[in-house]
Amino acid sequence: MNSEERELERRQKKEKKSERKRRVAWALVALLVAALIIMRVAEVDFTPSPEGAPAAESSGFPCSLLTGTELALSGEGSNIAVLGDTAYCVTDRKTAKTLYSFDHGYSNPVADFAGSYSLIYDQGSQSYRLDSQSKNVYSQQSEQPIICAGVSDSGAVVLACLSEDCPSTVSVFNRSLDKKLSYDVSEGYVTDVAVDSRGSRVAFAVVSSENARFKTVVYTMNTDDSTPRAAFEYAGSGVLDLRFSSTDLYVVGMDFVSVIDSLKTEKSVYAPGSIEVSSFCYSQNGRLVLAYRSYSGSQQDNISEIRPSGKAKEIVSIDSRIKDISAASSRVAVLTSGGVTVYKISNSQIAAEYPADDSYSSVLILSSDVFARRQAVIEKLSAD
After folding, report:
1. Are 166 and 185 in contact (CB under 8 A)?
2. For every one of its 384 residues, what pLDDT tens digit does the chain have, with 9 covering 90 and above?
3. Is the peptide bond before 145 cis (omega within 30 degrees of 0)?
4. For residues 177, 182, 185 and 186, what is the CA-based torsion angle, rounded to 10 degrees?
């Protein structure tokens, strides 16, 4: 065998090894991502309903979605942001006029939102873009396929990608695309990431197996560190979300919630195995609002607000399965098969109720305005 044949064989073996690595990575990531997807959509009936709940008479609402199948409904600043399987759109919450939209062309689009920024990336591919409410900041290609990504309200972006030399690589870029961190993760595959508002602190969840049982470890570090500051292990449980609130980090697991203070100290809010997370969101003042069940199979959902200090305030218990929740600074909107109910966080009193049937799948509250998605339409439930 001559040198050229040996080199060709070496490249073919490397390509096969890389392909096997990618298949294993996506299988592991899919196990945890599927849990969140199931939690969000398993209880939604997408069967068309001839008679929906009446929407409030408001200029421009109801408005039809032009983004294809909705994948994410969120607030971007004070307006409505919708990511669909074909396009992205920002809509004025008062007039329903389109402020900004584009066709993204991604095969597996995923979005993250913070402040006035949206990060949209093609999971499993290499394309991603950062947008404000009115324009594209940049569109980029990563060196390797993207596993997950996040954005802060300063426009800093964190990417977790597959790597040729190790399972994953975590990178942080500021709004100007200056690279602030590149860290090789040899312990396993990254399934979630977060970056703080200044773009100086980062956290990432890594899944691996030990003694035939999977575990998740959350690592925290500053962008100028060469190694993580701390590691927090959760055996047999997955991490659904990481989110910074100033110097505190929310860790939302499948069956637990913790807050990590200053990258080093963990405060357990709900111990591993003590709850079953149904849904969650973050209020406009950055606090975690959680819907959970006390045990598997329970028909009662509980809603609590968790402050960055780790203190939990129980808001209400509902004898119905929650389909979606959304929180403003002082109120939380809860969508069930029976309708939308808005609760005051301070005293748990009902602030408003709106009829809705099973054709409604998402709810969004921005200040005192309440919206809901019904099939391919966004309706404004609250009156002006």
Report:
1. yes
2. 555 555 555 555 444 444 544 454 455 555 555 544 444 333 333 233 333 444 444 468 999 877 777 788 999 888 999 999 999 999 999 999 999 999 999 999 999 999 999 999 999 999 999 999 889 999 999 999 999 999 999 999 999 999 999 999 999 999 999 999 999 999 999 999 999 999 999 999 999 988 778 899 999 999 999 999 999 999 989 999 999 999 999 999 999 999 999 999 999 999 999 999 999 999 988 999 999 999 877 889 999 999 999 999 999 999 988 999 999 999 999 999 999 999 999 999 999 999 999 999 999 999 999 999 998 899 999 986
3. no
4. 140
CA atoms within 13 A on the CB side of 357: 11
- Is 150 within 8 Å of 157 (Cβ atoms)? yes
What is the Cα–Cα distance from 361 to 370, expressed in whole angstroms? 14
Burial class (CB in 10 A: 0-12, 13-18, 19+), 248: buried
3-state SS track over 22-62: HHHHHHHHHHHHHHHHHHHHCCCCCCCCCCCCCCCCECCEC
CB neighbour list of residue 375: distance below 8 Å, 6 or more residues apart: 46, 48, 359
How far apart are the C-alpha atoms of 302 and 327, rounded to whole Å? 15
Q: What's the pTM? A: 0.85
First to last CA, the chain: 79
d(CA 255, CA 240): 10
